[in-house]
Specification:
By secondary structure, the chain is an alpha+beta fold. Helices cover 24% and strands 26% of the residues.
């Protein structure tokens, strides 16, 4: 006898961020349809019901910054970061939209599908980098978190011939004095 699936709550946005333009709301609906989930709003909280038929995969995340290894199961139609959070696993993130490199990982084994990962180039994807916030596991996968600055440098470093930009506190003080 199969146990009923419990809904996974989606964390509501703070009040100042709840008024999105209609085109963004439509995009969210499209993403939910692609993920094969039903989203029901009750009492100001969204509940996400995953597809019953979606295959699941074991995801192992080596968190370099914290020295922790997380292992959890993710349905193929769910984002890795969202599933980790629903299981009280804390992983690095910032934008949640695939536009930055805060949740970047290097794939050690397995595969991740990430059609919305705008924060990393096709070249880095080919080298095994992925973003957990918009990544779907397509097999059992083992990944290692990366330092956001390292990934940013790999992606954009060739455009800065002299190396990383160093902070100039004196210039910052001068700029602040003008305001």
């Amino acid at each position: 006898m199969a146990l009923p699936l419990l809904p996974t709550p989606i964390i509501p946005l703070p009040k100042q961020q709840q008024s999105f333009p209609s085109n963004i709301r439509r995009r969210a609906t499209t993403v939910s349809a692609e993920l094969q989930t039903a989203v029901v709003r009750t009492g100001g909280i969204d509940y996400q019901f995953p597809s019953v038929d979606a295959p699941t995969h074991k995801v192992t995340v080596h968190d370099r910054q914290r020295g922790i290894v997380h292992e959890f199961v993710v349905p193929e139609d769910q984002y890795i970061l969202h599933t980790a959070e629903s299981q009280n696993i804390t992983l690095p993130f910032a934008c949640r939209h695939g536009c930055c490199t805060s949740c970047a990982v290097r794939i050690k084994s397995g595969q991740i599908r990430q059609p919305e990962a705008l924060g990393i180039s096709a070249e880095l994807k080919e080298k095994g980098y992925a973003l957990l916030c918009v990544g779907f596991p397509t097999s059992d996968v083992e990944v290692e978190t990366q330092d956001e600055d390292e990934v940013y440098w790999l992606q954009f470093g060739r455009y800065f011939a002299r190396g990383p930009v160093e902070r100039d506190d004196y210039a910052l003080e001068l700029a602040m004095a003008d305001e």
